[in-house]
Design a protein that fits this description.
Blueprint (H helix, E strand, L loop, with lengths): L7 H8 L5 E5 L4 H12 L3 E6 L6 E2 L2 E5 L5 H15 L4 E4 L17 H29 L4 E5 L19 E2 L5 E2 L5 H21 L5 E7 L8 H10 L12 H8 L10 E4 L7
Parallel strand pairs: 1-2, 1-5, 2-4, 5-6, 6-9, 9-10
Antiparallel strand pairs: 3-4, 7-8
Length: 273
């Protein structure tokens, strides 16, 4: 019998991001920064696009301003990247909005707040992916679009983990207790549907689309909430920001080359119940 020898170089090449250009929309937050750092470390040239104006360059990571609610701004962002790189291989959509009164209860939720969340979380995803697909087809690129959803795009939030939390003044206007608004869950579900549509409609052009659905991340929330959340997770902890780096590398690289229309759930087992 011939002994099989593990070829580490061949394995590593599956996850290599060398010669790949990645555009991360909504990349200045903690999760976006983790993604940018990980993909850059594996060889990608990364462009972070956000409404926040950052002009710094960090190794192979570049920052550009982009408002995903404006087609002209999206066009400009793509144009600026393509001037330098001639192609874009991977587009990651990680934009979400928390406008004023974001945490109001469902019964009192304002339509203008709902529309703002829909516009940034879902309509922006449509505009960015539509623009990307046009470029992929025109340039004959095996494009890859990844949307960031959530476990709350898969299952409904558990109201019990929010019970007893005290209303607190926050930067999103007013004094509200922590909760998961319906606008958030609705848009995150919508991203899963959008990804499946892209997968079935544009697979013939070698364009892939998948979703990454993270679970809750520990970010200094109230102790009562953290304890309740941990008790519902089989692994008995909330996620760290870095827990999703392996998943985004897998989805962005050739390691997932035969994967499209899928939703990769990384939640410590939250949705296993």
């Amino acid at each position: 019998m011939t002994k099989k020898i593990f070829n580490s170089n061949q394995f590593n090449s599956l996850f290599s991001m060398h010669n790949k250009v990645v555009a991360i929309f909504g990349g200045t937050g903690k999760l976006g920064e983790e993604f940018a750092k990980t993909l850059s470390n594996y060889g990608a040239k990364v462009y972070v696009l956000d409404i926040k104006n950052k002009t710094k360059k960090n190794n192979e990571t570049f920052y550009l301003k982009c408002d995903v609610q404006k087609q002209s701004s999206i066009n400009s962002a793509f144009k600026n990247i393509l001037k330098k790189e001639k192609k874009i291989d991977v587009v990651i959509y990680n934009v979400y909005s928390k406008p004023n009164n974001y945490y109001k209860s469902f019964e009192n939720y304002q339509l203008k707040t709902w529309k703002k969340v829909i516009d940034s979380n879902l309509t922006g995803a449509f505009l960015v992916s539509q623009t990307a697909i046009r470029r992929f087809i025109k340039d004959k690129i095996k494009g890859n679009i990844i949307f960031l959803s959530s476990t709350y795009g898969v299952v409904g939030p558990d109201p019990s983990i929010y019970e007893g939390l005290k209303p607190r003044k926050n930067i999103y206007g007013g004094r509200f207790a922590l909760n998961t608004p319906a606008a958030y869950s609705s848009t995150k579900s919508g991203l899963i549907g959008l990804s499946k549509y892209i997968a079935t409609s544009f697979g013939k052009f070698n364009i892939r689309s998948n979703v990454l659905s993270p679970g809750g991340v520990y970010d200094y929330q109230e102790k009562t909430f953290v304890n309740k959340y941990k008790n519902k997770v089989p692994l008995k902890r909330m996620a760290h920001w870095s827990d999703y780096n392996g998943a985004i590398l897998f989805l962005s690289s050739d390691a997932s080359r035969y994967m499209t229309g899928s939703n990769l759930i990384i939640d410590g087992g939250w949705t296993s119940w």
